Amino acid sequence: MALTAEGVAQLAQQEGVDGLQKRLPDPDFDVNALRSADGKTALHHAAAICSAGAIQALHDFGSDLEAADELGQKPLHIACRRDRMETVTALLDLGADIDARDTQGQTAVHLVAKAGRARLVPFLLARGADLEARDEDAETPLHMAARGGVLESLRALKDAGADLEARDKDGETPLHMAARSNKVAALEVLVSLEADLEALDKDGESALHLAARFDKPEAAVALHELGADLHASDPDGLRPLHTAARCGSVGTLSEMGTDLQIQDHKGQTAMHIAARTGMAEAVRLLQEVGAVLDVEDTAGCTSMHLAARHGEATVMRVLLNAGVSIHTTDAMGETPLHHAAR
Question: Where are this protein's ANK repeats (predicted)?
């Protein structure tokens, strides 16, 4: 029978280091070179079967504590994902690097946070793990827990002192993560822990902007009920409703009491934005809830001008049926037909 990494782990579990030495007497045998298809060594498999005895035996037999599988995960990562305190302790006692990273830059604390292994959070921190470790996207364990909606991890990390306003590479906080992932309960927990509802990312967008952009209506409603500003502005003067108009998801925000006529720095309303991006259904919905169809932007353009300029024929028909004139001129004296002919 062919020798396998998993088989060696089972041998170590059953017979210890003496059994390994007896059955694998070849002095040239490299226990770290024997890998399963996913790159795991016998020590990875020992961590997976949750055998502290096998871990000790394999270590004594020369297994590398920091061997990485094809995902860059070390035996400690595997033990943490399995939520077995005994095997995690065994690996750390033998000298495993508590902040070792996988190919995505994630440490053991990242993995337990997103997997909901909340009891391991304080244990790893007590052993010296970095609470604010950053992965390749500069995300902390708290970002992971927020995006996954893992409430036990959120609370455990906050109890340990995690930074609620930590920023990833895009300037997003854990609250942004929960919003874009539509994790309502996580939003509620984070706000109860005093996360900043109006924190802005690198693009100047709040969590409510992201809920609008990614069409997460439940998150948008939750943020509104928690006190988020419906009219928070990004650097271009875009409010959440403007952001929603770009992807056609204006329904939820339009029902919350947001100002339908509010304009960005170009003087454009949600109606302008929905028109120029071809969101015909959003145009219809905005009309139904009372949005003015022919507001002029700073260039004197109405939604009809913008729909014509961008070749949005369906939107133009919707606007025509609603009574919007095709003869209105902009600040340059041009009608929508002039824009369409460009």
Answer: 38-70, 71-103, 104-136, 137-169, 170-202, 203-235, 266-298, 299-331
Q: Are 172 and 205 in contact (CB under 8 A)?
A: no
Name the residue range of residue 5's domain: 1-130
> Is residue 177 domain-resident?
no
Instruction: Using DSSP, state whether 20 is helix, strand or coil.
Output: helix
pLDDT in tens, 236-285: 999 999 999 998 889 899 888 899 999 999 999 999 999 999 999 999 99
Count of structural domains, the chain: 2
Burial 115-124 (b: 16+ CB within 10 A, else e): bbbbebbebb
Q: Both tokens of residue 255? A: 């029902």
Contact 110, 136 (CB under 8 A): no
For the record, the structure tokens of 252 come out as 């939820």
**47 near 36, Cβ under 8 Å?**
no
Helix (H) or strand (E) holding 112: helix 108-115
- Residue pair 145/139 in contact (Cβ under 8 Å)? The answer is no
Cα-Cα end-to-end distance for the chain: 75
For residue 263, what is the DSSP state?
-
Question: Can you give the pTM of this predicted structure?
Answer: 0.89
What pLDDT digit, counting tens, does each position of 178-222 carry? 999 999 999 999 999 999 999 999 999 999 999 999 999 999 999
Question: Which amino acid makes up residue 297?
Answer: D
Q: Is 28 left (phi over 0), alpha (psi -120 to 50) or beta?
A: alpha
Is there a contact between 1 and 11 (Cβ–Cβ < 8 Å)?
no
For tokens 């939520």, the residue is 83
* 243 lies in some domain: no
- Which of 97, 130, 163 is at the close of a domain? 130
* Distance, CA of 262 to CA of 286 (rounded, Å): 13
* Residue at 315 is within a domain: yes
Residue 314 CB contacts under 8 Å (≥ 6 apart), including other chains: 278, 280
